[in-house]
Amino acid sequence: MLFGGFGNSAKTTMVSREDALPGRDYRPFHVPSTHAVLGTPLEGPWPEGTEVLYVAMGCFWGVERIFWQLPGVIMTAAGYMGGFTPNPTYEESCTGRTGHAETVLVAYDPKVIGPEELLAAFWENHDPTQGNRQGNDIGTAYRSALYFTTPEQETAIRDTAERFQKELTRKGFGTITTEIASAEDAGPFWYAEDYHQQYLHKNPGGYCNHGPYGCSLPPRQ
Length: 221
Description:
Radius of gyration: 16 Å
Number of strands: 8
Number of helices: 6
């Protein structure tokens, strides 16, 4: 996402809680009230029955665009999750010293789209075998991760991971490194700065390294 400064100096070793940046007890920037594409509240409330899945696939710009285009998705937002620093900034996250992964919150209507369809978009649009990087973006902030909020999501994550690993192996890829945890264990989702929200809608020619790379989620046997 950044090709100089913080982006290239990102660490590939997870920082400890003790060594993480201290952060702050307030949000140090503005976050828009509504989604620039979907027109829904960025921080809720959302319709009754809405479920949330958190996905990390590298740079959150391209990730967010993948998910806001899916039918049944009510809202998406770029943010930081899975680390230690409260109310982090983008610059802090890029140092690798917050422990957070660039993450997208996906709020969806389970009557229209289910976890398996969301996870197919997750697995098929990035390489989940790269560890603490995604393409040109290197560091723990760009790791692959899934943070679930329902038992159904956890079941679907573990099932699709097993099926997708078989496809990866068949095509000569390595082992999935995706971090899988409950959202409760991963800690709060911290919204990213205004300019990151729906970035590729505001900047259609902006940087994106996501998209199909030749592996599809096999159907359940």
